Amino acid sequence: MLTIKPETVCHVIFRDRQLQSGVPVEHDDDETWEPDRHVVEDAELDLDLEMIAPDNDAAPDPTADELAAFITELPIDHQCELIALAWLGRGDSGKEDWDDLLELARERRTGRTDEYLLGMPLLSDYLVDALGQFDISCEDFENEHA
After folding, report:
1. pLDDT one-digit tens code per residue, 29-58
2. 117, 82 Cβ separation under 8 angstroms
3. Which residues contact 126 (CB under 8 A, 6 or more apart)?
4. Domain containing 98: what range?
5. How does 52-75 read in b/e, with b if 16+ C-beta sit within 10 Å?
6. Does residue 31 belong to any structural domain of this protein?
7. d(CA 35, CA 38)
8. pLDDT > 70: what percent of the chain?
9. Cβ(109)–Cβ(45) under 8 Å?
10. Displacement of CA 43 from its chain's centroid (Å)
11. pLDDT tens, 60-72?
12. Residue 140 domain-assigned?
């Protein structure tokens, strides 16, 4: 069962697609998007996901910065759910193994979830596929933010 709001995952998908397409984030002064907050007792997880080194030669990308900040501001348990969703969508396991995937994400999580997730070239596709396994669609979210 997911505790992260589908809208939060859809926001990551939407922004990742913008990042992959090269379309910059446009901020509306009236629009504020806050991640859903949920405190976790075990916030200091000592974990080690293999990290993909950022390209330090690339020019700063406001879309990447916004998305990285958004992911970083999420509660630890929601960051772990994003990791597990990416793995689920990538086909590492099936929905029936969700609890195991989530536990593995908690065990292997590092302090740089944003770098790990944004280092996945197909992140948005993985998340869409994973949400589909929970019968969740981002269609309404995308229509509102397009």
Report:
1. 444 444 443 333 333 333 334 433 444 455
2. yes
3. 85, 86, 87, 88, 89, 90, 120
4. 6-22+46-52+60-145
5. eeeeeeeeeeebbebbbebbeebb
6. no
7. 9
8. 73
9. yes
10. 18
11. 678 899 999 999 9
12. yes
